[in-house]
UniProtKB/TrEMBL annotation:
GO terms for cellular component: anchoring junction; cytoplasmic vesicle lumen; cytosol; external side of plasma membrane; lysosome. The lineage of its organism: Eukaryota, Metazoa, Chordata, Craniata, Vertebrata. PANTHER family: ADENOSINE DEAMINASE. Signal peptide: none annotated. Keywords: Cell junction, Cell membrane, Cytoplasm, Cytoplasmic vesicle, Hydrolase, Lysosome, Membrane, Metal-binding, Nucleotide metabolism, Zinc. This is Adenosine deaminase. It is found in: Cell junction; Cell membrane; Cytoplasmic vesicle lumen; Lysosome. GO terms for molecular function: adenosine deaminase activity; metal ion binding. Belongs to the metallo-dependent hydrolases superfamily. Adenosine and AMP deaminases family. Residues 10-349 form the Adenosine deaminase domain.
Length: 359
């Protein structure tokens, strides 16, 4: 049965995790090649193991990565393949520009040894991972005629990785990497883990763009820290910003961009399950700057079309709002100025707005 599409026009996606957007069949194929035993031997069986069907907690959601990450992490062929297939899948959703994020250390299968201090080992180096992902994305771009860039993630529970992530962002900032991100447990703040702040200071010094997961399940103070301490240019999720009306007003006036993920927010327990009362509706009514994204479509068993369909059917989104959202997403992308203008022109042309919308 064909999936219902409510906005069959070019789209921009800014918040999606590479390791949360893998095809289940690919996991099964790679496990077979590597001789790794899975709890289920078919794609259907692994889908039942991996995918959430009912709202859960963020902890339960994150535990799903343990079902398959050991199959992909540390394997050169697998990492390049998932990057290539990711671009193909986004092209099918009529995404013409995507920023995909991942932790180089997690895909490298980096392990921290207790002795000596902070010694790390892994199946691949994080640098090799970035190179492989870049190759897969570039080949996908050529094959499917879309533009894909990447964002490298620091992990809140692994502050020892953050400066290396910043260094990798700097090394590859002209080869497809457009920003740094901070993901993970929002209770682990920068006061307790100053390494994250240092990494973001280095990123800002080197002209590297900055986004931060904040206000997904943590309080509005995490959003404030992201903006004031880490100098975030965009906020990942940010639903709890509404709990601090002064902060919300301030960020809206600054045109801060919020990367929002409707289906994800329900199944991770970040927001109440009633989509008709979702925080995104407030952002929509206030004409705030935000995007619609999938986050982790593998675990959520979702597509970008599903997020758009829910926004239209349960949140009151119109086609004009979808156009506004994608134009704002393009404007808030981390592309260089010339490429951003090209992307915007492509959207204006597809939306029939070329003559009415000057740059």
């Amino acid at each position: 049965m064909a999936e219902q599409v409510v906005f069959d026009k070019p789209k921009v996606e800014l918040h999606v995790h590479l390791d949360g957007a893998i095809r289940v069949q690919t996991i099964v194929d790679i496990a077979k090649r590597r001789g790794i035993n899975l709890p289920a031997q078919t794609a259907e069986g692994m889908t039942r193991r991996i995918c959430l069907e009912e709202p859960a907690t963020l902890t339960v959601f994150l535990s799903k990565f343990n079902e398959y990450m050991h199959v992909i992490a540390g394997d050169r062929e697998a990492i390049k393949r998932i990057a290539y297939e990711f671009v193909e899948d986004k092209a099918k959703e009529k995404v013409i520009y995507v920023e995909v994020r991942y932790s180089p250390h997690l895909l490298a299968n980096t392990k921290v040894k207790p002795i000596p201090w902070n010694q790390q080992e892994g199946d691949l180096s994080p640098d090799e991972v970035v190179h492989l992902v870049n190759e897969g994305l570039r080949e996908g771009e050529k094959a499917f005629n879309i533009k894909a860039r990447s964002i490298l993630c620091c992990m809140r529970h692994m502050p020892s990785w953050s400066m290396e992530v910043a260094a990798l962002c700097k090394k590859y900032q002209h080869e497809g990497v457009v920003a740094i991100d901070l993901a993970g447990d929002e209770s682990l703040n920068c006061e307790a883990y100053p390494e994250h702040r240092k990494a973001y200071e280095e990123a800002e010094r080197c002209g590297i763009h900055r986004t931060v997961h904040a206000g997904e399940v943590g309080p509005a103070t995490v959003v404030k820290e992201a903006v004031d301490v880490l100098k975030a240019e965009r906020i990942g999720h940010g639903y709890r910003t509404l709990y601090d009306r002064d902060l919300y007003t301030k960020l809206r006036e600054k045109n801060m961009h919020f990367e929002m993920c409707p289906v994800s927010s329900k199944l991770t327990g970040a927001c109440q399950p009633d989509f008709t009362r979702h925080p995104i509706i407030t952002f929509m009514k206030d004409k705030a700057n935000y995007s619609l994204n999938t986050d982790d479509p593998l675990i959520l068993s979702s597509t970008l079309h599903l997020d758009y369909r829910i926004a239209q059917n349960l949140m009151g989104f119109s086609e004009e709002e979808f156009k506004r959202v994608n134009i704002n997403s393009a404007k808030s992308s981390f592309l260089p100025k010339e490429e951003k203008e090209e992307l915007l022109y492509s959207l204006y042309e597809a939306y029939g707005m070329v003559q009415s919308t000057p740059f």
